[in-house]
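Before any further analysis, we paired sequence with structure tokens, yielding the entry below:
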Amino acid sequence: MRRYLLAAVLLSAAFVWLGLMIAAGPMDPLTVDPPHYTLQVENQFTRVFLEHMTPGDTMQMHQHPAPGSVLVFFTDRHNRLTYADGTSKEFRNHAGDVMWAAATAHRSENLDPINFAALQIEPRANSTTPAPAEELDPVVIDAKHYRVELENEFVRVLRVKISPHEKLALHKHPDTKAVIVYLRDGTVMTTDANGKPAPRHVNARQVRFSDARPAHQDENPGDTPMELVRVELKQAR
């Protein structure tokens, strides 16, 4: 009994110590656990990084910054997250899923027998003035191809699917910066309002940061479907 009481006291003390560390300053994941995180993009508007684990791997305890982040899963996920207070919860997702993750301190364990990989997109506040509504907003004029996956005060996340040899309608995204995540290999042909085309060859899991753009059309000139996730940073203007 004495041994169990001692273990409980030590565990409690460890969580108190951890709480003090978190209160003293954020335990940034890229700082405390670089083997599991790879930076992709960082600027005043966003930070984007890849998190990855091998089967049975465990990350260090870390703190994600407010307000939270968008997660795009490149693989299936079966993870156990253990929080700073000692509680834990298991999560399951499929490759291609998108979700919003709150800013928390936790440690993650990969319970799957496969490698795990997901992209995290952290929005950074830049402007509180919302972008004006666009008459040619693709969500309004072409909801079949531009589907809203999630939306809050920080981001609007679209899933875009283009069939082989399909050209979509002329549209204009809101006047904000965005992060584009490609889920399939292929070519995207972008044609501006003057009819000038610009091809872009992309690979699955490729990420790019995009400024606000004028009206354009998207086209898939290839023989296989194209799919991408567009994370619009509402406060990046």
